[in-house]
């Protein structure tokens, strides 16, 4: 965030995204999702984000990048 000139920590941004993702639970299920992972620290710690591409909203954030975590999340989602 420092490189972008934003005086806020990465953890604060993630907390905000998770809080907003929790509010979206009552809405209609997402039809098109995007999944991306990133490295907090190269070859050490990773995260995964799931986004509703139609609404441009964060649906969930994981503290890992495992296929099992994403598969469990997808199984919990209602079908459109």
TrEMBL record:
Protein name: Transposase
Alphabetical list of PANTHER family matching this protein: TRANSPOSASE FOR INSERTION SEQUENCE ELEMENT IS1557
Pfam families in the cross-refs: DDE_Tnp_ISL3
Ranges of residues in domain Transposase IS204/IS1001/IS1096/IS1165 DDE: 33-76
Membrane-crossing residue ranges in chain numbering: none
Species whose genome carries this gene: Rhizobium mongolense
InterPro entries on file: Transpos_ISL3 (IPR047951), Transposase_DDE (IPR002560)
């Amino acid at each position: 965030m420092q490189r972008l000139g934003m005086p806020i920590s990465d953890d604060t941004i993630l907390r905000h995204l998770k809080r907003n993702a929790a509010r979206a639970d009552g809405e209609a299920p997402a039809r098109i999702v995007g999944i991306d992972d990133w490295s907090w620290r190269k070859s050490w710690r990773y995260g995964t984000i799931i986004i509703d591409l139609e609404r441009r909203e964060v649906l969930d954030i994981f503290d890992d990048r495992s296929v099992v975590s994403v598969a469990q999340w997808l199984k919990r989602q209602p079908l459109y």
